[in-house]
UniProtKB/TrEMBL annotation:
InterPro entries from the UniProt entry: Sulf_transp_TsuA/YedE
Transmembrane segments: 73-91, 111-128, 140-165
Pfam families attached to this UniProt entry: Sulf_transp
One GO CC term on file: plasma membrane
Protein name: Sulphur transport domain-containing protein
Top-level taxon in the UniProt lineage: Bacteria
Membrane-topology annotation of the record: Multi-pass membrane protein
Keywords carried by this UniProt record: Cell inner membrane, Cell membrane, Membrane, Plasmid, Transmembrane, Transmembrane helix, Transport
Length: 170
């Protein structure tokens, strides 16, 4: 089976914007992904060490607002994104495991870099009260100054660090 071409990125961006506006109109909230990871971490701590979960202030405050972390709509949203991506990969003939990397980088460096980068982005999303989709895209959709600042920082820091790591990808 020959893989189909990817969707036009401008059309995909327009559709993403319409999905975001529809989500805000229907649910009163924007899209997000890091909140689902946070819910999974909270549920893990709650399951593994319930006494710690109940006596630590951070967890106690989260528990007051979210007594069942895995019943968050963000968890279901991310599950739908994963299933939708798998379905899309299957019907377009691109469903396979492969490691995307530049010619000057080993598999080990690529995987360690992805894990460290993902962890830093996750920590940053908690300091910024949201990730790219939750804080930046959804924030910009409602013309929040914080959302605009978040997007500027994400792209600004990305361009700054791209200079130092560009030879790994070229």
């Amino acid at each position: 089976m020959e893989a189909k071409k990817y969707m036009n990125p401008y059309l995909a961006g327009l559709i993403l914007g319409l999905v975001l506006l529809g989500t805000i109109f229907i649910t009163g909230r924007g899209l997000g992904a890091s909140g689902a990871v946070k819910s999974a971490v909270m549920q893990t701590v709650k399951t593994v060490s319930p006494e710690h979960y109940e006596t630590t202030g951070y967890y106690a405050r989260y528990n007051e607002a979210n007594p069942s972390p895995m019943k968050s709509w963000l968890v279901f949203e991310v599950a739908g994104v994963i299933l939708g991506a798998m379905f899309s990969g299957i019907i377009s003939g691109r469903m396979k495991f492969k490691l995307e990397k530049g010619p000057n980088i080993s598999n080990k460096v690529r995987l360690v870099g992805a894990l460290v980068g993902g962890a830093l982005f996750g920590i940053g999303s908690q300091f910024g009260r949201g990730c790219t989709s939750g804080s930046a895209l959804s924030g910009m959709a409602v013309q929040s100054a914080g959302g605009i600042l978040t997007m500027l920082c994400i792209f600004g820091v990305g361009y700054l660090f791209a200079y130092f790591f560009r030879k790994l990808w070229i």
